[in-house]
Amino acid sequence: MARTPVFSRRRRSEQIDALDRFPISDSEVHVLAVDDSLVDRTVIERLLRLTACRVTAVDSGIRALQYLGLQDESNSQVGFDGLKVDMIITDYCMPGMTGYELLKKIKESSTLREIPVVIMSSENVVARIDRCLEEGAEDFIVKPVKLSDVKRLREYMVGDEKIGSERSGNNKRKLREPCDEASSSPSILSPAPSSDSSPPPSDSVQSITPSSSEPSSPTSTPQSDDSK
């Protein structure tokens, strides 16, 4: 009984290895996976291959920049093997260069900034998530990465305008705040015309009051003269 979990785990690994040997079609997307952990890198690589993705895995942000040829701007979105990179998924905490620093390097490049970048982390820190999303990350995944997460990532690699618009609304959360303010402003401005229309009657009433008070003052002065 004690050997059963080991046997089942080994069997599952063999099944996944068999899936890794499936032929790769030309329509498959190419993902660059960056993680310093061999275990996590292997997991994400296999999950991506299960969703029909071609995967190139490197162990550091520096290796990722070298593969992308970021120092040579002529190698736009093309790795050393000549494959176009459709998406980059990187771990956040890595020695030498963090995933956030790699994200900034990519978004500062005129030739690589359009590549979608997804950040992974084992820590669910809100400030870290917001910082990555504001810098241009498409998504932030908290480890362990699941197959459902990887399937959802394929939306970022599909050139569909509808998906792109929904993606920008869902992930770039900081962009929602100005939209909410803009949507609330019309409701504030809408009653404004009614309030502007109400003051004119009040002004007309005020204009009548002084006119009625002016005749009263001269009538009072002649009475004082008669009394004299």
TrEMBL record:
Show where the Response regulatory domain sits: 30-158
Q: Print the keywords alphabetically.
A: Phosphoprotein, Transcription, Transcription regulation, Two-component regulatory system
Pfam families referenced in this protein's UniProt entry, alphabetically: Response_reg
Q: Which GO terms describe its biological process?
A: cytokinin-activated signaling pathway; phosphorelay signal transduction system
What CDD domains does UniProt report for this protein, alphabetically?
REC_typeA_ARR (cd17581)
Taxonomically, the superkingdom here is Eukaryota
Give the InterPro entries listed for this entry. Answer: ARR-like, Sig_transdc_resp-reg_receiver
Q: Residue spans with biased composition (Low complexity)?
A: 182-228
Q: Does the keyword Transcription apply?
A: yes
Asked whether the keyword Acetylation is assigned, the reply is no
Region described as Disordered: spans on this chain: 163-228
> SMART domains, alphabetically?
REC
Residue(s) carrying 4-aspartylphosphate: D91
Stated name of the protein? Two-component response regulator ARR3
The lineage is: Eukaryota, Viridiplantae, Streptophyta, Embryophyta, Tracheophyta
